[in-house]
Predict the structure.
Amino acid sequence: MKIAVVGTGYVGLVTGTCLAEVGIDVTCVDIDANKIEGLKKGVMPIYEPGLESMVVRNYQKGRLNFSTSLKESIKDSDVAFIAVGTPPDEDGSADLKYVLAVASEIGQHMNGYGVVVTKSTVPVGTAEKVRYAVQEALDKRGESISFDIASNPEFLKEGAAIDDFMKPDRIVIGVDSDRAEGIMNKLYKPFIMNGHPLVFMDIPSAEMTKYAANAMLATRISFMNDIANLCELMGADVDSVRKGIGSDPRIGNRFLYSGIGYGGSCFPKDVKALIKTARENDYQMRILESVEDVNDDQKSVLFSKLTSSMGENLTGKTFGMWGLSFKPNTDDLREAPSLVLIDKILSAGGKVVAYDPVASHEAQRILGDKITYVSEPYEALNNADALLVVTEWSEFKVPDFDKISTLLNNKIIFDGRNIYDKNEMKELEYEYHCIGSK
């Protein structure tokens, strides 16, 4: 099979690389010439564990190619994935201009039957807009080439995307023709040989499934953060509560960890888009609106704890921050709680010295020299007035607390991810602040 993947961002690059890994001829297309040339040299535009070696291996073997020409890449392709960005508009709706521009260009250059697949996260009804854009371009050419549209939402977790694609929990595909179903079934056969389910459905249902899945996970996070805040007021411990409810098989124990809010490229954007879609159809997503409100507030909880302990005027105070990315194993800072916390500390007169294993470069692109970046975690703590744990990277989980105490001006830790044991912190005579427990 010959596949074209348009877009070499997180979704497109992972999709194209993993398809090439099982022997499929893949060309990844992007308008950014510098990015394409970098990929040919093994320079990754994103950080994702295991991705670099897989890209290099498949490129060297000729199964994975990179191009700026959709015209050349689409020729004789069996499937064309659209995997470009759908950034939120000011009103929260998904901006489809890039998706529809690619669809139109596919129609301008396709030379035979193929399946055009939306891989980007798009609102219900987008497939029909894509179909119209492709057909309109074909009509302008005076061509009567047949094609099908499909929806194949991604369910990749940043930091575990390779495993998620190669060993999927499920593969969801929306189609409206037997021919398209047959091609997509053949494409994904290598990934379902171990029993992973391939779920075919109608196209609108597939588009909705992606949003509903992310909205449910975001809901669980905000629910636990709401419970955590109440636990603090009532003298309960949210970690004990989590274990208690997580042992119920009807609930399960995943996505029940409290913290300082979710971020990233998916949950915030998808929740907003689903709320907007509902409003456009005269319906109010009351639960999701609350999910979003709780998450927005939760990103300020650690700062509130900080000022309660150290005062609202932070002039002259320095804080060592461990973690910048919105979650471990990624350099993604989109909607990251760290950015909210940094902004509030700087506005209150404080300074931030930050360490992150992979996200410092991206943070510097966003923040410039507003904060100080260091290349070693303990370096961030030299003469700092407190340690702020913002991202639960593995290397932070068992630190040298004796060493930390010699570096900090005060033995104070604000743990936004609850990775330390509060009883141990008490024994070590730290002033310890976490989420959901006194």
Q: What stands out?
A: The CA atoms of residues 88 and 94 lie 5 Å apart. The longest strand covers residues 2-6.
